[in-house]
Specification:
This protein has about 350 residues and is of the alpha/beta class. Helices cover about 15% and strands about 30% of the residues. It folds into three domains: about 100 residues, Translation factors (Elongation Factor Tu (Ef-tu), domain 3); about 120 residues, Rossmann fold; about 80 residues, Roll (Ubiquitin-like (UB roll)).
Length: about 350
């Protein structure tokens, strides 16, 4: 008898290809799909023809080279590991956003991009439940879409509610797929909510996230575990609802637009990388991470907002201005660690990197 479980999809029994096991890799863009008027899905394959084994909800850390400078960004995977031959990320254009506009305007099939790793604790495998509420706003739909596709592909016996908020029907990323999955699977209920609707074919709700709306659309909320992701304004409102109403558990994405670092500049200066034997100049307003990448020194990073702690390095000389948002553990600052993604040198500095 076959029993459906929450265990990760195993490539070993599904295919004989070697599998990407983490770390830096070169990916090749195979397709670009228009999702909405301002968002696209990019389909990537590994340059070494390896398959991908990841957890639904995790993200990829990219290292893009734009105009001769390195720019690190983390994007949630919007595809599912049950389709292991590629990974897909869906990127919404952000006004003034350097990388999001670069991707939407410049990346075409055949383009090569570099990644540092695939990671993330916000995923279905590590925190499964019987009655998930997949809650998203705007482009925050990507990690929970990966979870939904995984659950339906594996046909896990879960009672799923998918609740997504967007500005208008034309802004709903994956609208066709979500409506299809809601019709195809009896165990999946999809609610699409927009601020305003001028599309006669749209049969969803209008309004914004609130406790009243949540009680009406998800009356069994006390039995459900929330998996939520979205821009900061949406997340703030979603947390307020979670504080007001009972839920079994609340899980949220831990990088992206949740935390905005205030403007900081330092004074700039020379940066010496003692372990690599390299040095470079950090202009005013540039972080230590940017200075490192610009001279070819790789420092692991993910959130770029002082949260995850991946980019911590030891400062052996000099001073920096740092905005730690929780990335350093107790005692690490006293031991000389700084977060490269949110540290600006105040004159010449040296790092163990």
């Amino acid at each position: 008898m076959l029993v459906a479980t929450d265990s990760p999809f195993s490539l070993s029994s599904a295919n004989s290809q070697p599998c990407y096991s983490g770390g830096p890799a070169t990916l090749i863009c195979k397709a670009v799909i228009d999702e909405t008027h301002d968002s696209k899905t990019f389909v990537f394959e590994d340059s070494q023809s390896r398959s991908f084994d990841f957890k639904p909800g995790q993200y990829v850390t990219f290292n893009f080279q734009i105009a001769g400078k390195a720019h690190v960004r983390a994007y949630s995977i919007s595809s599912t590991p049950t389709r292991p031959h590629n990974i897909q990320v869906t990127v919404k254009r952000v006004p003034g956003g350097l990388v999001s506009n670069y991707l939407n305007d410049e990346i075409r099939p055949g383009a090569e991009v570099e990644i540092a790793d695939i990671s993330g604790s916000f995923n279905w495998i590590d925190i499964p439940c019987e009655k998930p509420l997949l809650l998203s706003g705007g482009s925050g739909v990507t990690p929970v879409m990966s979870m939904l596709q995984y659950i339906t592909d594996v046909t896990l016996p879960k009672d799923v509610v998918f609740l997504h908020f967007a500005r208008s029907p034309k802004d709903i990323i994956f609208r066709d797929q979500l409506e299809f999955l809601g019709k195809r699977f009896r165990s999946v209920t999809v609610h699409l909510v927009v601020d305003s609707a001028d599309d006669p074919s749209f049969t969803g709700e209008t309004g914004q996230i609130s406790a009243e709306l949540m009680q009406r659309l998800v009356p069994d909320h006390a039995e459900r575990s929330i998996f939520m992701c979205g821009p900061e304004g949406f997340m703030k409102a979603a947390r307020a609802v979670a504080d007001e109403l009972p839920f079994a558990a609340v899980h949220e994405e831990s990088f992206g637009e949740k935390i905005t670092i205030e403007e900081a500049s330092g004074t700039g200066g020379e940066v010496f990388f003692s372990l690599s034997g390299k040095n470079g100049h950090c202009a005013q307003g540039e972080t230590l991470l940017e200075a490192a990448l610009n001279v070819g020194v790789w420092i692991d990073s993910a959130c770029r907002q002082g949260v995850c702690g991946n980019c911590k390095v030891v400062l052996t000389q000099g001073q920096v201005e740092m905005q730690d948002m929780g990335g350093l553990q107790p005692g690490e600052a006293e031991a000389g660690y700084v977060l490269a993604c949110c540290s600006w040198p105040k004159g010449a500095v040296a790092l163990d990197a």
